[in-house]
Write a structure and sequence with these properties.
The structure holds 2 protein chains of 2 kinds. Helices cover 75% and strands 0% of the residues of chain A. By secondary structure, chain A is mostly helical.
């Protein structure tokens, strides 16, 4: 397991370095140049930028120094807001985004997996078609359509739930979490169904049934574990999608999370903020993928052989 | 299960004897009501999008500030937005942009994915390992974030949107094509082609790619909705299509701001987007069942 982890890290770290270098060069090459003072950058920001990026040095040294700062958890100053650092914005915004993504993920898993299991177990009956049609709807209703619809009906129409903010009034986390999690619940249900149907058709399930194992035990003890790997390999990238999707949900529900900072930074062309956040997200996503791989190996040790 | 296989056999037999693969598939597709309804809906939307400049009742940027936002009336069938612009017209123009982004970016993804997958599968060995490893690595990248970074660096332009979305969506296509090529290249007719001295390029273009078209068509149909979704996502955030032009995503984003007073401004474009995505997904599923009955899900 440890060797497997090290192997994965050995692949991820050079890739992350590559991402850092490419994004850094890209931002450097931006027309007009983010680091050239063609626009009116406040002098103290310019001074901080100079100190941070050592603009007089050759570009490779600049990247090296930037990576050195990153290793010390220092993403540099914001390009647009004097006195604010990118690190500060990440550390205030990310916990909110992470909490939102976590609730959305919980919602997706709690709703999606049982629906998929039910649909697979009752394949080609009403209990299969019903949830799967709803799942198709969930996939085709993007969060920026679903969110306003939920807000209009449950928030404004019925007045049951607050429609903005995060942790300010009771229940204001429900709508954002559902909006963000809905399409993942739908995908999870479809993947779970497909995978479980395949497993349920295999010989060892027939054997278990022939031995007189109860239907409940067949499902929970025998069928579920081999059916889980596709679900787990979906969840790794899904976490990435949740984080990216949180841009929309945070904008819709006015949650001051990292996603909203990122979009604002993109609007303001706050180069250092966008650069820092991109790298932060990339690192996070690599982490999630490695975690998903580890869980896969734990579920099915044969996976290790494939590398 | 039994019933399904009988049904399928009946469907297979209903194909005329000696008809081509494409004709067979079309006959099977025609029996799938959901897929056919989706196909007609999409053709209708595409047709309307094509003739919009002649058909649209108003100009997409023509404002009427005295009117402001109104609900559906005889003159404005779906009402107007806060600037008094006709919503139906803007949805029609929006469908031009959303559909063309969907088609062009998918074409980019298709081109890269098919070539990459064919080369990897055909040459095999180390080239294959290297090329597919690259695909694996790229899978781990947060593309929606990188596209936003690109819009920050290069400004917000349509061309960038096409290329960036296309470049983000080719990975699965490459994997699917490679898998198909691996099984096809062992067939005798490829050996015959090699024996006749054709170059790898000729073999790939004339003999391999035509034989992987089935899965490619299916996956293309399923790529278009995800591309349209990505474009709407970016436009919704204000990073895609710029006003006064409209795409479904930017219309929805405009509607969100005033949804309490004028829910129609978000409901109609949202409905259009969702129906289109729905139809494309149904058509994709139907095409998969028709072109490749073995891989159907039941």
């Amino acid at each position: 397991m440890l060797i497997f982890l090290l192997k994965r890290l050995a692949q991820a770290i050079p890739l992350l370095l590559l991402v850092i270098i490419c994004t850094f060069l890209l931002v450097h090459a931006a027309p007009g140049g983010p680091f050239t003072s063609e626009r009116s950058v406040p002098p103290q920001v310019l001074a901080a930028l100079n100190a941070q990026y050592n603009l007089d040095l050759p570009i490779w040294q600049q990247i090296g120094l930037y990576i050195g700062h990153l290793l010390q958890w220092d993403f540099g100053p914001s390009f647009k807001f004097p006195g604010r650092s990118v690190t500060e914005m990440i550390s205030t915004g990310f916990p909110l985004s992470a909490e939102l993504s976590l609730y959305a993920l919980l919602f997706a898993v709690i709703l999606g997996l049982p629906a998929g299991i039910l649909a697979a177990y009752k394949a080609n009956t009403g209990l299969d078609y019903g949830p799967m049609t709803v799942a198709m709807l969930g996939i085709c209703l993007p969060s920026f359509v679903l969110g306003p619809l939920l807000t209009l009906s449950f928030g404004i129409g019925l007045g049951w739930l607050p429609v903005t903010g995060w942790g300010e009034s009771s229940g204001d986390k429900i709508l954002p979490a559902i909006t963000l999690g809905a399409s993942y619940a739908a995908y999870l249900a479809r993947i779970m169904r497909g995978s479980l149907i395949e497993v349920l058709g295999q010989d060892f399930i027939r054997t278990a049934r022939a031995k007189g194992v109860s239907e409940f035990a067949v499902l929970w003890r025998h069928a579920l574990r081999p059916a889980l790997p596709p679900v787990i390999s979906f969840l790794g990238p899904a976490v990435a999608g949740l984080l990216a999707g949180s841009f929309v949900v945070e904008t819709l529900f006015q949650i001051p999370g990292l996603g909203r900072f990122f979009i604002q930074a993109a609007f303001n062309r706050d180069y250092t903020m966008v650069l820092g956040t991109t790298i932060f997200y990339a690192a996070l996503i690599f982490g999630c993928n490695i975690l998903a791989d580890l869980i896969l190996v734990w579920l099915d040790p044969r996976q290790k052989l494939h590398d | 299960m039994l019933l399904k296989s009988e049904k399928r056999r009946a469907l297979l037999q209903s194909a005329e004897p000696g008809s081509s693969l494409g004709r067979d598939a079309f006959i099977r597709l025609r029996k799938n009501k959901a897929a056919m309804a989706s196909l007609f809906f999409l053709l209708f939307v595409a047709l309307i999008a094509c003739v919009t400049p002649w058909l649209a009742p108003y100009s997409y940027e023509g404002q009427n500030l005295d009117l402001g936002a109104v609900g559906p009336t005889g003159e404005h069938w779906l009402g107007t937005d806060t600037l008094g612009r006709d919503l139906l017209t803007r949805i029609m123009y929006g469908s031009r942009i959303s559909l063309s982004v969907g088609l062009i970016a998918t074409a980019v993804a298709l081109g890269i994915g098919v070539l990459w997958g064919t080369c990897a599968g055909y040459f095999g060995g180390r080239i294959d390992a290297l090329m597919m490893r690259t695909v694996d690595l790229l899978y781990a990248l947060p593309f929606s974030i990188l596209i936003i970074l690109l819009t920050v660096v290069f400004g917000r332009s349509m061309l960038l949107l096409f290329l960036a979305i296309g470049a983000a969506e080719w990975l699965t296509m490459a994997r699917i094509v490679r898998g198909q090529v691996l099984s096809i290249k062992r067939k005798d007719f490829i050996e015959a082609a090699v024996g006749m001295g054709l170059s790898p390029w000729q073999i790939m273009v004339r003999h391999i790619i035509p034989n992987v078209l089935g899965p490619v068509i299916v996956y293309t149909t399923l790529t278009i909705p995800s591309v349209i979704l990505l474009e709407s996502f970016l436009s919704f955030l204000g990073l895609g299509i710029q006003p006064p032009a409209s795409s479904w995503g930017s219309l929805i984003s405009g509607g969100v701001e005033v949804m309490e007073e004028y829910p129609g401004l978000i409901i109609y474009p949202g409905l259009m987007l969702s129906l289109t995505l729905f139809a494309l997904n149904f058509l994709g599923d139907g095409l998969r069942d028709a072109l490749d009955p073995r891989s159907s899900k039941d």
